[in-house]
Amino acid sequence: MGSETPLKLPVLDFSNQSLTPGTTEWNTVRAQVHNALEEYGCFEALFNKVPSHIRKSIFPSIEELFDLPLQTKLQNVSKKPFHGYVGQYPMVPLYESMGVDDANVYEQVQSLTNTLWPQGNPSFCKTIQSFSEQVSELDQIIRRMILESLGLEKYLEEHLESTNYLLRVMKYKGPRTNETKLGLNAHTDKNIVTILYQNQVDGLEVQNKDGKWINVKPSPDSFIAMIGDSLYAWTNGRLHSPYHRVMMSGNEVRYSTGLFSIPKEGYIIKAPEEVVDEEHPLLFKPFDHVQFLGFYYSEAGQRAHSALKTYCGVQDFAFSN
Predict the structure, then answer these.
(1) Phi-psi region at 236: left, alpha or beta (left = phi > 0; alpha = psi -120 to 50)
(2) Phi, psi at residue 286, to the nearest 5°?
(3) 8 Å CB contact between 36 and 12
(4) Which terminus of the chain, N or C, has fewer Cβ atoms within 10 Å?
């Protein structure tokens, strides 16, 4: 018997200069986005709007950040779960990460930079802000395409204005063995859309609907776009929020970034009436994302098979996510 063809994510091209709403190119990619998110919940995105000098400097900047003393990194604190420094966990000893709230806003990045480097670090600040600003354009294109494909264009302005951006930068130490070790537990993201970018040390795996793990190997110039539970709930389950994890082997350090579009505190996520009907009954009660995060990181939330269903699921529906 021949070996099976390796599973791969769809690769979608957002680099066309004529990719503007209403064009044939736009409509073609929009259909591809919808199909990929229905089937996989994610895809590989080719996107050339991030200048090469920013791409080249993002990982040295992240390395410089993680090389800071632990006591300095611990000054990155946030009232919101998983928004500050995360690391030193025995369950995932290879992993640590840092969050930058409103990373597309220069003043916000500068404030954190000055906390970590009291003498200032303008190159780090500019790299993080520029990268986040450019990648946020891809996020907004994808979200616009999603709403258009579901016939929800009238909600676009409210939808975009209801979120801000968190950039999480992540470091995974090589386990120094050829035996595969857990870098980050299997989970679904809890936000709207996540856009991942990595150095060329692989490890990301995405689970398909059949329960098989796909080894994700993006090109140096591509991103992985993935939807989270908040968008899954808002679209009333029309799209798929995939489980994913990081598995590590070898000696090399893996660095990655995740730009997360996050619902603002106080904004209530509620599925529009257009996506609720007899064939698609309401799956989730309205909820506040920040309060949901608080539950997710509680003992009960961590025990739940699906924190989202446990927290705000409407009873008596078949949960398949």
Answers:
(1) left
(2) -55, 145
(3) yes
(4) N
